Amino acid sequence: MPQRHSKNNNDLAFFTYDEKRKLGYGTQRERLGKDSIKPFDACSLCLKPFISPMSCPKGHVFCKECILECLLAQKKDIIRKQAAHELQKKQDKEEEQDKLAAQRARELDAFDQQNHGAVPQYSNDSRNRNQDKNGFHGANSVKTTSFEEEALRTMKAFWLPSATPEATVKVDAPSSHTTCPEGNEKLKMKSLFPIYLTEDTSEGDRGSLDKSYLCPSCKVTLTNTLTLVAVSSCGHVFCKKCADKFLAVDKVCLECSKGCKGRDLVQLEKGGTGFAGHDEGLVATDFKHLGSGSGLGLVRPSSKV
């Protein structure tokens, strides 16, 4: 049985609904899988299981080596930007002085021309063909005034190589503070604190990539479905239920009996779980539009929701 002619008709000046659907026109949505979600025990920089984990006051967890290298690189970049900013300030000051000197020279030149007039220039070179019998050089006999020089310099004739405008690059004053690579808030090395997770040893020896961790209070296996709380004073990690029930009330760490306050309880950031009820954005969207008259689908990524 032959197919419908309306779906095979491709000589129209516009795309039909069936052609757009075949090309994937519109917003494409795809639910993120487990491979696209960062586990709670992974570094936010290298995305590998963390080694000697350290947390910032906002709960972002990094490997010790990764975060220290990041902060040192930021400090070097700040020093480089500060040097470039100081150099630009020096150049701007020199340009301002040159402008003032040129302005004084123009004022003196204008005063001299107003009082003495334009003096013709003579030349003893007999080989100059433009020189007439009185010694004048035609248009070149009168010195170019400062006003003409200024007009030539400011003329917006982009087709002339001498009048091609140049875009000046301004270097703003850099911030002197290092920032967290995950949350973009101010972060110092001394504000980082190490965290310690209780490893599950009941299932025998496991590889370094298959480690599982427990809450030291309720012995529940820690996963992305649980909200974790770290004590900044000692670094031990508990589930949020135990932290709210015991730590917030007793003001004592259940693992080492060290005193803690309410501000010492830091909620750790984590990835999603793949379930719709989770508070993370788990749907990636791409907007595909059609090229003008080409029939090819051009993909333009849109913001994640």
Automatic annotation (TrEMBL):
Localization per record: Nucleus
Gene3D superfamilies reported for this sequence: Zinc/RING finger domain, C3HC4 (zinc finger)
Region named Disordered: 109-140
Keywords: Metal-binding, Nucleus, Zinc, Zinc-finger
Biased composition (Polar residues): 112-125
Gene Ontology CC, one term: nucleus
Span of domain RING-type: 215-257
Pfam families, alphabetized: Rtf2, zf-NOSIP
Taxonomic superkingdom: Eukaryota
InterPro entries per UniProt: NOSIP (IPR016818), Znf-NOSIP (IPR031790), Znf_RING (IPR001841), Znf_RING/FYVE/PHD (IPR013083), Znf_RING_CS (IPR017907)
Family in the record: Belongs to the NOSIP family.
Name of the protein: RING-type domain-containing protein
Origin species: Linum trigynum
Organism lineage: Eukaryota, Viridiplantae, Streptophyta, Embryophyta, Tracheophyta
